[in-house]
């Protein structure tokens, strides 16, 4: 049986379904219902957490993780940036003090009206200016949120020896926004990218099999894995960029692609199971957005969904074109077999057309590609559980979807 790989899509609503699916996969293999395990897993965003647990091959561990997810609270994995908490607390204290001064100034209004007016004006103006400063402080901090609690949670939860000793390879991509992107001259390069292919320089990753990730002392190895794993979950507009091996800025996998199957393909896999499910948050909706964070999140979901559509159709289109090319080649082989019964030059126009057809077949932009067998795992609609707004029932439903 051929080796096969798993590619799991990200976004928080998929965390619980991923956990439930991989738990079921672990159980199926132990029962003998699954003949062969995947030999490679590539993750997007939050999928890296249950995927890392899967490498431990422990049903008991999955039960613990499922219970943890059902009882999960935001404070366990995310918190406000210390700068925001410090500055806002200080600004709020100053504002209260100034408003208190204004209140006291109001008490002497009858006996000292002029002094009272001056003190009240100064206090209220000071409070207003401090409130302006509080807003500036919020937007001048590196980020709203930090993942310090998630790092601690992963450190306590993951069995790193099991991960690095596993026969199943795992690769956790993230995006270097300093290296990503294209200019027009690069897009219109000669030879054309659509003929010779291309490689986006913005991808980085951490693995359990590459020497640069493995050949480290255990403490450094584990910290490196956690740090780069968290980098793949850094959502823009919520978190500050992470660091990989230099000062470049690293963000969530889905910044470029929530379906990074090309990592599996580059490792030689042509049979890939894509854990997609049915995420309502990425489809059309009649929801009314009353707060800007909600619409910001929706824009991200829309972009992610569109990129997945493009990636999916790209591979399906190439697969279809390769099938049609194979039919053309068989037809040309039939004509060549027919012509072989006659001396060369008997049908010059037909011979020329056949040669031209063979040359054209070599020049198709997809001619050098391999057929990639993508098996998509769907589901009933999964709960719309955003990381800033979820409850126990949504997580329970997601696990058992």
Radius of gyration: 29 Å
Poorly predicted runs: none
The CATH architecture classification of the largest domain is 3-Layer(aba) Sandwich
Form type: globular
Total of helices: 15
**Structural domains: how many:** 2
H/E series, N to C?
EHEHHEHHEHHEHHEHHEHEEHHEEH
Describe the overall structure.
By secondary structure, the chain is an alpha/beta fold. The protein folds into 2 domains: 5-79 and 147-291 and 375-399, Cytosolic phospholipase A2 catalytic domain, CATH 3.40.1090.10; 82-140. It contains 15 helices and 11 strands. The strands form 3 sheets. Strands 1, 2, 5, 6, 7, 8 and 10 form a 7-stranded mixed beta sheet that branches. Strands 3-4 form a two-stranded antiparallel ribbon. A two-stranded parallel sheet has the order 9-11. Strand 1 (5-8), helix 1 and strand 2 (40-43) form a beta-alpha-beta unit. Helix 1 runs parallel beside helix 2 (48-54) and helix 4 packs antiparallel against helix 5 (113-140). The longest helix is centred in the last third of the chain and has 48 residues, at 292-339. The radius of gyration is 29 Å and the shape is globular. The two termini are 29 Å apart. The mean pLDDT is 86.
Topology readout:
Layout: E1 5-8, H1 15-31, E2 40-43, H2 48-54, H3 59-70, E3 79-80, H4 82-107, H5 113-140, E4 145-146, H6 148-157, H7 160-165, E5 169-176, H8 184-187, H9 193-196, E6 203-207, H10 211-214, H11 218-231, E7 250-251, H12 261-266, E8 271-275, E9 278-279, H13 292-339, H14 348-363, E10 373-377, E11 381-382, H15 392-399
Parallel strand pairs: 1-2, 1-8, 2-5, 8-10, 9-11
Antiparallel strand pairs: 3-4, 5-6, 5-7
Helix pairs in contact: 1-2, 1-3, 1-15, 4-5, 6-11, 13-14
């Amino acid at each position: 049986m051929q080796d096969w790989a798993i590619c799991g899509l990200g976004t928080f609503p998929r965390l619980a379904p991923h956990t439930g699916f991989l738990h079921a996969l672990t159980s199926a293999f132990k029962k003998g219902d699954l003949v062969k395990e995947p030999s490679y897993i590539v993750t997007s965003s939050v999928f890296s957490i249950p995927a890392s647990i899967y490498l431990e091959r422990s049903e008991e561990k999955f039960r613990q993780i499922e219970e943890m997810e059902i009882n999960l609270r935001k404070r366990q994995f995310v918190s406000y940036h210390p700068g925001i908490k410090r500055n806002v607390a200080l600004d709020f204290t100053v504002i209260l003090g100034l408003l208190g001064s204004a209140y006291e100034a109001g008490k002497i209004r009858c006996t000292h009206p002029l002094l009272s007016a001056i003190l009240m004006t100064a206090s209220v103006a000071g409070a207003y200016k401090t409130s302006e400063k509080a807003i500036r402080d919020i937007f001048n901090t590196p980020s709203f949120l930090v993942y310090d609690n998630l790092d601690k949670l992963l450190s306590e939860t993951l069995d790193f020896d099991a991960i690095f000793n596993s026969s199943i390879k795992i690769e956790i991509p993230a995006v270097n926004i300093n290296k990503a992107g294209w200019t027009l001259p690069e897009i219109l390069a000669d030879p054309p990218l659509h003929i010779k292919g291309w490689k986006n320089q913005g991808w980085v990753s951490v693995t359990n099999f590459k020497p640069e990730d493995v050949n480290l002392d255990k403490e450094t190895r584990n910290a490196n894995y956690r740090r780069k794993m968290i980098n793949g979950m850094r959502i823009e507009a919520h978190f500050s960029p992470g660091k990989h091996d230099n000062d470049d800025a690293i963000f969530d996998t889905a910044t470029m692609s929530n379906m990074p199957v090309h990592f599996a393909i580059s490792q030689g896999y042509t049979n890939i199971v894509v854990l997609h499910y049915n995420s309502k948050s990425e489809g059309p909706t009649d929801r009314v957005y009353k707060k800007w964070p909600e619409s910001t999140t929706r824009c991200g979901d829309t972009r992610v969904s569109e990129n997945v559509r493009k990636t999916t159709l790209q591979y399906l289109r190439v697969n279809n074109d390769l099938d049609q090319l194979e039919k053309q080649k068989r037809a040309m082989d039939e004509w060549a077999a027919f012509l072989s019964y006659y001396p060369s030059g008997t049908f010059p126009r037909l011979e020329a057309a056949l040669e031209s057809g063979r040359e054209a077949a070599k020049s198709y932009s997809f001619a050098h590609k391999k057929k990639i067998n993508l098996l998509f795992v769907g589901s009933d609609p999964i709960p719309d559980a955003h990381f800033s707004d979820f409850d126990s029932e949504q997580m329970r439903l997601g696990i058992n979807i």
